[in-house]
Structures are given as C-alpha cells and as structure tokens.
Structure prediction request, 265 residues.
Amino acid sequence: MTQQIPSTEPELAGVRNFRDVGGLPTVDGRRVRHGVLFRSGHLAHATPEDAAFLDSLGLHTIFDFRNAADQRLEGPDVELPGVRNVNLPLSDPADGAEFWKMVRDGDLDQLREILADGKGAARMITSYRSIVTERTGEHSQVLRSLVEDSVPALMHCAAGKDRAGLSIAVTLLAVGVEREAIVADYLKSNEKHRRYKVRRGSSAPSAYSPEVMELLSPLFDARAEYLQAAFDTIDETWGDADTYLEQGLRLTPEARERLRERLLD
Prediction:
C-alpha cells in the first residue's frame, strides 16, 4: 500500500535537503512510487515539528551514512518511535580530520594549497569513484535490506548530497530508473533551500570572502561530473550496471525484481 504523506516538499526547519524520490521514470515506463524512498541531510537538528512530519511518513528504516566524526560534530539523529536506525558509515569525500580542520579554520593561502586549480573537484571525483569500488558491501546491505523489509526508507548523510546521493543513485539504478533522471534528482541538492550551510571557525568577513567560498564550492556543490564519474566507474569496472548489481553487489535477478515491486508503481 502506498504511504499517504502530507507533502513531498515540506518546510523542515532543522533538516536540509529532504525529498521524496517518487515519480522518477524507469527505462521501461514505470515510475518510483511516492512515499517509499526519501533522502535528506542529517536529522540531528530536527525540531519537534520536523520529527512529527518524519513520523507521519511511516518509515521502517533510516539509513545514516555518516561516520563517527560527523556524529560528534552534528549529534545523533532524532529518535522516531518504531523506526529502525541503521548507521552504515561511508567515506566522506572530504574525509580526514586534518582536511576538515583546514576547510573550517584554514586561511586563504592554506585553502588555495588544498583546493585551487581543480584540486577540490578532483578530490570529489576520486572519492565518488572509490565509494563505488570500495563500498560494494555497504551498498549490497542497503539493497538487501530494502528487498527484505526496510521500506519506506530514508537515506541520509551529513548534507544529503554525496554519500546519500550515491546510495540513492545505486538504489535507483537497481530498479531501472533512467540515468538522466537520477542525475536530475541529484542536482536538486544545489537548490538554495537545500544546500548544506558552510560553517567556518571564524565569523570574520574574510572567512567567508568570495574567493574562500569559490575555493570551497567543489566540496559543497552537487556536480553532474561527480555522479558521472561514479557511473563511468561502474561501466569501466563491471561493464554495465546489470553486471555491477549482480556481481558487485550480489543482487540476484529475483531480488532485483522484488525490489522493483517494492519501489515502483
């Protein structure tokens, strides 16, 4: 039964980048069912009103792809009664305490050193590629859970853009959603009301100067080239998405069909 929800685009005060991926088209003419698969940024700052909305979704499982450092920084997710919380850490594209310290506290010269001349975007592309090849076990676990019992599900990381974005993309590939539609949904994370709020250690104007924000932008943007790098890695490593799903993620054709029945109209 399709979960009836009050809105797919609510005004959440403490949760960024929330959306229902329902409605996305598959290559064979079906669509993702509304009310079964959601994505967002972290839930640690959810207000009581946000929590009431999330509770109304009838969620079975929340997949939290943040690591321990994220959770120390932001806090644990809000607890929703009767909802299973699964913490499945994935690599942060800006992983490493020293790197994040530089992002938050580094001066302009330090930021130029680690991010200028395309180094920021290159770091993101490398990370997306490595998550595809090195995190097959985690993505396999997510898909198997969805096949078995974990729907409706919400997937999130910190910003809801990279780790959650890739996990949503893998799930959508598994049910046959068009790649162009997956990219279009991914790029919605750039919309102003969805974007992760960049926080730096200093509140001085120089800490948020135009050049600083430009240097940081590759880390906080959703760029089609990042997701395309993930798709290219799938094709280069396994030949195509079907082989990736069956051999890389151990998702049998039978399980994949059950997943389609769970997630598609």
User: Anything to note?
Assistant: The chain has a mean pLDDT of 89. The first helix runs from residue 48 to 56.
